[in-house]
Amino acid sequence: MLVLGIDSSTQSTKALVVDADSGEVVAEAKASHPDGTEVDPKAWWDAAQSAIGEAVARAPGRIEAVSVGGQQHGMVALDDQGEVVRDALLWNDTRSAPQADELTARHGAKELAARTGSVPVASFTITKLAWLAHNEPQHADRVAQVLLPHDWVSWQLAGRPERTWTDHGDASGTGYYSPTTGEWLPDLLTDAMAGRTPAVPEVLAPNARAGQAALPGIEGATIGVGTGDNMAAALGLGLKPGDVAVSLGTSGAVFAPAEQASADETGTVAGFCDATGRYLPLVCTLNAARVLTSTAQVLDTDLEGLSRLALSAEPGAGGLSLLPYLEGERTPNLPEATGTLTGLTGANMTPQNLARAAVEGMLCGMADAIEALRDTGAEVRRVLLIGGAARSEAVQGIAPSLFGVDVDVPDPAEYVALGAAKQAAWACSGAATPPEWEVAGTRRAVGDDTSGRAVRAAYSRARNQVHGI
Ligand SMILES: Nc1ncnc2c1ncn2[C@@H]1O[C@H](COP(=O)(O)OP(=O)(O)O)[C@@H](O)[C@H]1O
Ligand SMILES: O=C(CO)[C@@H](O)[C@H](O)COP(=O)(O)O
């Protein structure tokens, strides 16, 4: 039996056709999304149709089921005809930072963490709805329903039926859902939207059959419930206790499976649900893979060239530290921040050191995130490095000493789309637990030095100097 997994993430849509018995990927395709932090959702649907069409054309048989993993938090506001009211505001759009502060001041961080699992920052859907109510009341008045990106793409796949749905994982990133009771929190939604209460999708079980595909080429295939991209990656990797995933895509996301819900009132760790009915505490930064792309551009090289340069510099980049807050930052919560390069001298200002500082700066944020997860009780036995930037040799070489824990690199693959495919197979199997697919070859990354502590200390000093934290 063949199933289809879709990853509709920030930069692109990926589609994988997978053999449901073995987990083997038999066909795949990819289509890009536009840049920017506000996007017309139709661009995701165009990309999905293109990637699905290509993947399915290469598939050796009929697709029985499909599921969608999508970038978390994005605000897809629909009117009473099901049309989008305005472009979606994405997870990495920081304009709603003042609304995040206001909501937290009004309700209290402790209360919000206890009720929703998280203290909202600008990424969370609830703050985007509050921004809309305050800045575009004419649009807010027209909002009849709010969906998340994966809900909206699944709904298009189903041919826009009467019913809309979501899952626990993605719902837990809205800021108006309770991970512990599994219920929406309409009072928080109404408060954020200044008295308006749009409809929200039905929350279905992780292995639900949510609908049937209406898209030509996969018509009649069962649609699984779908989930957030990080929840899908956790499912695709089959994370076990002690495993921590570090995903280096547009965002840097660090997450671990948990049996208990978390409620970190400092706001560092978001208390999300996973895609199996359990939990997925997660720390997220706004600056990961694109830090490397931007630095490569400055150095007039490509990503391989950047990697070579970084590995030819000494650990510590000759005293340079890069605080890579190129898009503002979410963890630490510095939405207005810009990037800073500290420690420049005539002697150390080389392309090699700059490349090294970029890789180290991005990874130091991830090392802090691993520590924050550990502080909330997560067991950290090994790190699994995934996402686009995990393909970089420099990242693989430098991560172990900065993380101070074993780092395994699963074979490069689209783990979000694989997790979505696994969810689709689960919806068909009717079993109590998802299928167990073996994760293809995992290689242990070997660190190039033991100076991780010193590099991290220099990074902390730079952050303290510039931002006082
Ligand atoms: N070898 C590489 N080295 C560094 N970065 C890479 C490499 N290959 C891909 N990337 C980066 O990975 C990013 C895409 O990763 P992905 O996990 O697909 O992101 P997203 O899920 O956010 O769309 C792009 O910014 C791309 O430049
Ligand atoms: O906001 C978060 C997690 O809370 C991000 O991780 C988004 O889910 C986008 O992910 P990528 O496109 O970087 O995979």
Automatic annotation (TrEMBL):
Q: Which GO terms describe its biological process?
A: D-xylose metabolic process; xylulose catabolic process
**Ligase is among the record's keywords:** no
Record-linked Pfam families? FGGY_C, FGGY_N
**One MF term in the entry's GO annotations:** D-xylulokinase activity
- Give the residue spans that cross the bilayer: none
Record's function text: Catalyzes the phosphorylation of D-xylulose to D-xylulose 5-phosphate.
Could you say which protein family the record assigns here?
Answer: Belongs to the FGGY kinase family.
- What protein does this entry describe? Xylulose kinase
Organism of origin:
Saccharopolyspora rhizosphaerae
The upper taxonomy is: Bacteria, Bacillati, Actinomycetota, Actinomycetes, Pseudonocardiales
